[in-house]
Amino acid sequence: MIPSSTYRIQFGPGMGFARAKQIATYLDRLGVGALYASPLLQATPGSTHGYDVTDPTATSAGLGGEVGRQALHARLRELGLGFVVDIVPNHVGISVPQANPWWWDVLRYGQESLHASKFDIDWSRGPIMVPILGDEHGLEELQLDGDRLVYYEQMFPVAPGTDGGAPQEVHERQHYRLVHWRTANTELNYRRFFDINTLAAVRVEDPEVFEATHAHVLSWGVDGLRIDHPDGLSDPGGYLRRLRDAAPEMWIVAEKILAVGESLPVSWPVAGTTGYDAMREICGLFIDPNGEPPNAGSLQFLENRCKETAARTLLRAEVRRINALLPFDDEEAVIELLSMFPVYRSYLPEGRNSLEQAASANPRCAEIARLMLADPHGELATRVQQTSGMVMAKGVEDTAFYRYNRFVALNEVGSDPSRFGVSPTEFHVAMQARESGSPETMTALSTHDTKRAEDVRARLAVLSEVEFETAFARWSERKPLPERSLTRLGWQTVVGAYPISADRLRDYLAKAAKEAKTATSWVDGNPEVDKAIAAWPDDVFGDAALMAEVTELVDRITPAGWSNSLGQKLVQLAGPGVPDVYQGTELWDFSLVDPDNRRPVDFEQRAALLARIDDGWLPEIDASGAAKLLVTSRVLRLRRERPELFTGYRVVPAQGPAAEHALAFGRGDRLVAVCTRLPIGLAAAGGWRDTVLPLPAGEWTDVITGRPTSSTDNFGAPLLSELLSTYPVALVVRS
């Protein structure tokens, strides 16, 4: 079943199966096509996200177990809603070894374990390295408790017949070695998820491992799967083909991050991506290209430098494993090759152009590429491709995008912050391509991984229409953060997310600074810098005169931000693809990066507002966000009830003096969506005036307001000043 839309729920503490069952009625009333769940398998005790699966053969007990999942699924079926689940084929969680039966068994028995082949371990380099020791004297704290070694709260198994003597002596007889945590990035001998030591990769390319990791999920009979991080797999295409064979009728989307202009490999049997590509196109539409701030230097140079640093430091262990496969010793060439990839990874033999582009500048890199192309499915080609995605993610997403802060509304996964906005022409071309090439792909505006929620970006987009640099310079001089780019990020965050508590802002800036890795970092924190960052929110919010300036700007741009938010939402929900609504974003949402965007959602508030709307209330566009709930519910319901209306895609150009401020498209010849672009510029130019939206002749109804309008050959097209008199968006259906 292809859902008409999805609604993403983050399961975890406070949101188990019973709670989800309670809100299912609200999701049905909202117009949702399917509940889209974060991972539901047994995860690390206390997990807040579920991506650290510890037992893929069991449903999460903390969420309510298999009985609870079945009850939720049954309720969704009663309501006619689909069920889509996020799965994690690349890795499992090992932070609590005894919670993962496979990993525990491998630690106990080593290569003789029945589960040894499930993990990607380089056994040629000796015992499994477990990087948890706090210092070089950590083993002195080791204790023996029966058949377990204990290091503070961590427990590890003792192999049969290896006991006797001091704990340190027992430790030396095991199939693993507890080592200092800093050695992980350079010496680790098992593959992991990015640089996270507590997520160990599994060899899902092995049919037996695939069966072991997927049999339970596939037995659920859900309608769709979201595949997490396929770029980490040895053969993403092969994996997806095996999954398609196992679930031939299932809707499958891959969390594949596409570079601008990149397409999914044609051999992947999936409906499409999880929507970061659509996010860039839709959000960029509301940015004024004439308001581009001064250039902050070459983004490509910065990205390549950050990728090189990631390969050299965070991922040096992976670099060394690749280097060991070469007929020559040249880690520098490996690092350069990985840092020059223009995309996350190539998919040989299909993606050889990306590989050759990365290898073109250095003869040794070219030689590595030649060896990869000679055996595109061999271990060298596989490990380079797996690692290039890691390098891109750690270098660009988690470093460069926290440093290149000239206009942070653009700093999202899959975007290109050096490209200032998306023109209507580029947008329409992209939508037509999506409708013709991947009409069942997912589209998104916010996800659990976005660096800021859609409404933060929508408000920040307004800054492209106003003069902001003077105020920014004044505020930055008055209240700087320890690092220049962080100061710029800090002030944009205050403006974009205001009102925001000091605690939320403090936590966000601490994470941003450590990700940027300039003045402080996760690995090498700077206590003085960390202290200054922690003090900044209270210092800023405590300056009454300064905050008066800040709130004046926020108040001035907020109405235009609301207009952009409604425009984004309409375009996404009415446009090609299967739209996803991230939990809570049917009202204004000014969350920042996780864990801020995983805060509890007040579903009772949303249900009460929706009940008022269904009683005929047309809410004002105000801080309640009810206007966004109105737009969301009306479009979602129409998609679900009348899917035949949402086919095809054609441009519907407005005509008149303000035509450039209207973005309209038709789905077939009976449905037209129209939204307002660049509302500040529209108001400055005198409003819509006699701008019209030519519609095919007939009687039309705006499903958002319920108001009729008509278009005839004799009397012409509807005036946008009338069609958009209540809201800056409309979705009209011809009778």
Report what the structure shows.
With 735 residues, this protein is α/β, with parallel strands linked by helices. It folds into 5 domains: 6-90 and 204-274, Glycosidases (TIM Barrel, Alpha-Beta Barrel); 97-200, Maltooligosyl trehalose synthase, domain 2, CATH 3.30.1590.10; 299-402, DNA polymerase, domain 1 (Orthogonal Bundle), CATH 1.10.150; 465-556, Arc Repressor Mutant, subunit A; 650-734. The strands form 6 sheets. An 8-stranded parallel β-sheet has the order 16-15-14-5-2-1-18-17. A 6-stranded antiparallel β-sheet has the order 19-20-21-24-22-23, covered by helices on one side. β22 and β23 (708-711) form a beta hairpin. The chain is globular and about 90 Å long. This is Malto-oligosyltrehalose synthase.
> Looking at the structure, what is the overall shape?
globular
CATH architecture of the largest domain: Alpha-Beta Barrel
What is the helix fraction of residues, given as a range? 40-55%
- N-to-C span: 28 Å
Count of β-strands? 24
Count of domains? 5
Query: What CATH first level of the largest domain would be assigned?
Result: Alpha Beta
Secondary structure category: alpha/beta
- Let me know the CATH homologous superfamily of the largest domain: Glycosidases
Put simply, the count of helices is 25
Let me know the largest β-sheet: 8 strands, parallel
Q: Detail the poorly predicted runs.
A: none
Mean pLDDT: 96
From the structure above, extract its key features.
Maltooligosyl trehalose synthase, domain 2, 735 residues, globular, DNA polymerase, domain 1, eight-stranded parallel sheet, alpha/beta
